[in-house]
Amino acid sequence: MTQGRISGNGDEKHHVTAADVVRLMAEFAPPGLAFDGDSIGLQVGRMNKPVRRILIALDAYPAVIEEAVRIQADMLVTHHAMLFRPLKTIDTASARGLALAQAISADLAVFNAHTNLDIADGGVNDVLAEMFQLQDVEILERTQNEQLRKLVVFVPRDSHAKVLNAVCAAGAGHIGAYSHCTFNTPGTGTFLPGEGTHPYIGQTGKLEQTDEVRLETIVPERMVEKVVRSMLEAHPYEEVAYDLYPLQLMGKANGIGRIGNLPQPTSLKEFAESVKAKLGLAHIRFSGEPDRIIRRVAVLGGSGVSYAGQAIRKQADVLVTADCDHHNVAEANHDGLCIIDATHAALEVPVLTKVAQYLRSTTGVEVRVTTVNEDPFVWV
So where does a divalent metal cation get bound (predicted)? Predict the structure, then answer.
């Protein structure tokens, strides 16, 4: 996915706002991917808040809010929601209520991407799959297929190549492994510029006929805003004629969790030791025979033991997840699936660096990852 830094017209840099960050995060982790009822988006603050420094964290814990205020962050981007159920009171004697009051008092914008970040390409589970060096990676459980739109725009012939390249660079025109997939039909466009217009071609008050090209291409729904914005910037006309049509075609499958193969088979114990080291944990627990050979691995950041059945159906030898309970793990073991149970935080912290890198490259503002230890568990 090609991303551009936020910039203004000419040499003057555009001042980044919370709305810009929300839009960029929607391109990285589209809201439409989130599970029904999930709490995501801007939860505290205002969209027009100027943003010069961003803090990234798993949770808007009181210590994280204090850190954001201390470093003078303008926006906090988290994975878990600060507000995940309706509030009836804000009790500032409680840690949660005090954190909320501090965020509002500091004019801190607080945003989160939860299950949409789990599911997104390059999100929580892709980061884990890459960390564990999985190959031939697939989705563990399909949750939906991406919706597609057909974009049709009418372009003067001399600007056709410029507009075509702009929309394709912004994410349009991808079919499988092919890019720049478009269809182009020459024709004649007509228009009559009214008073106060400044036409690229023709004169005010005179009916104009011009050679144009009808450019058609396909656009994933999550990329529509970016593609249209790029199209309008590249198009020479003062008023651009274009259409967007919904399609019944099934787009790319999206889903929770990932499954893939290890580069080399290894024992369960050796793989568990590797997971522990890569996650920076002092200890880890697993179920299954330590000497069992592991070839195929499923990963699901956060609470994922309920997806053991999908892992078994996809012939995984082991599922790496968190928050596992006795009965589900025992049942998975009887069905031949080993479980590695890491902590919830340990499996989700790695994505924070990825989000920080993305926002640095797309906003140009300072982005930091929290220094607060957000894992509530301590090993003894």
Answer: 79-80, 118, 344, 348
Bridge partners for 339 per DSSP: 287, 319
Residues 266, 286: contact at Cβ < 8 Å? Answer: no
CATH for 119-143+255-347 (3.40.1390.30, 3.55.50.30, 3.30.540.10, 1.10.1060.10): 3.40.1390.30
147-246 in CATH: which number?
A: 3.30.70.120
d(CA 135, CA 133): 6
CA distance 308 to 310: 5
CA distance 94 to 362: 37
First to last CA, the chain: 43
Q: Are 160 and 187 in contact, with CB atoms under 8 Å apart?
A: no
Confidence bin at 14 (pLDDT 50/70/90): low
For residue 99, give both structure tokens.
Answer: 């954190």
Summarize the annotated binding site for a divalent metal cation as residue ranges. 79-80, 118, 344, 348
Is there a contact between 302 and 347 (Cβ–Cβ < 8 Å)?
yes
Known binding-site residue numbers = 79-80, 118, 344, 348
Tell me the average pLDDT of the chain. Answer: 93
